[in-house]
Design a protein that fits this description.
GIY-YIG endonuclease
Amino acid sequence: MGAAEPAGRFQTGARPLATGAQRVARVAVDVPALDREFDYLVPDALAGAITLGAIVRVPLHGRRVRGWVTALDVEPATGATLQPIAKVTGAGPAADLVELAGWAAWRWAGRRTSFLRA
């Protein structure tokens, strides 16, 4: 308790992007069979509304599903074709709670979305 955080811990703050670059958000989708996060493009029209923890609707395998933004301005996989976020449906939890949900999922071997939903 009270110890310094490990140097390898991930940062939740936004990083500056190259000029003209499209923003990319990492989204944890609310699909019980999937325990991973996906990258999506942030449309210019929604850029002001998308924050860490925002509840969004994203296209996934032919349907729109609910998800939470878990990281912003991430580097997508090389050669990946990204789809845009369809809609912002709510503000969602604060950035600290998104990070806490990730830790709780690791600690108790659960899914991050289970903690975000609660």
